Structures are given as structure tokens and as C-alpha cells.
Amino acid sequence: MKTTVELPDALFRRAKILAARRGTTLRDLIVDGLQRVTDGTLPASPGGLTLSVEESAVAVLDSHGLPVLKRRAKSKPKVVTAALVDRLRDELSV
């Protein structure tokens, strides 16, 4: 099915760069991402850490596979729970 989606310019540019680095198309990158989100899984980091859908609402994995908390200037702040921090510490052996 064809559809039109409006993306923020910065996100579009990052997605195009990522698709090029992976040797794939933007369409395939979007399909893969939507499948992972709707399945409730996200890609594993190089270190093997994977964030759940709930955790991905407050954190992302950087290029080294380390979790980085998100901050959005215009959105309502997300709650970072002690459980999330403890789980990340356990998985990273920190």
C-alpha cells in the first residue's frame, strides 16, 4: 500500500544517511522500523542491550550501544523510573 508521511527534515536526513550506510532503501528502513515497533521489539545494540518499547520512550542506544536518556524541549517530560535505571545498570554491569 502506498501512503504519504510527513517527517521532520532532520529525521528524514538521518534516516537517509542510515539507510545508505546499511546499503538499503529508506522504504525498507521504515518498514523494518515499523515492524519492530509493532512487534514490541527494537534492534539490539552492539553490546547486546535491547530496549523495550516502554524503555525506548525515555532512552535510545547510541552508536556504542550505551543508553542515552531522551530530552524533548516541547514535550511533556518522561518519567525515568528507578526500575529502568537498575535494569540498565544490571545489563551493563555498572
Helical segment count: 4
Range of helix content:
40-55%
The whole-angstrom Rg is: 15 Å
Whole-number tally of structural domains:
2
Main pleated sheet: 2 strands, antiparallel
Q: What is the average of the pLDDT values?
A: 78
Order of neighbouring strands in the sheet with most strands: 1-2
Task: Please give a structural write-up.
This protein is mostly helical and 94 residues long. It has 2 domains: 1-39; 44-94, no CATH class. The protein is 46% helix and 6% strand. It is built from 4 helices and 2 strands. The chain has a two-stranded antiparallel ribbon. α1 (9-22) crosses α2 (26-39). The longest helix has 14 residues, at 9-22. It is globular. The mean pLDDT is 78.
Summary keywords:
94 residues; 2 domains; two-stranded antiparallel sheet; 4 helices; 2 strands; 46% helix; 6% strand; globular
Blueprint (SSEs and pairs):
Layout: H1 9-22, H2 26-39, H3 53-56, E1 59-61, E2 67-69, H4 82-92
Antiparallel strand pairs: 1-2
Helix pairs in contact: 1-2
Quick synopsis:
The chain has helices spanning 9-22, 26-39, 53-56, 82-92; strands at 59-61, 67-69.
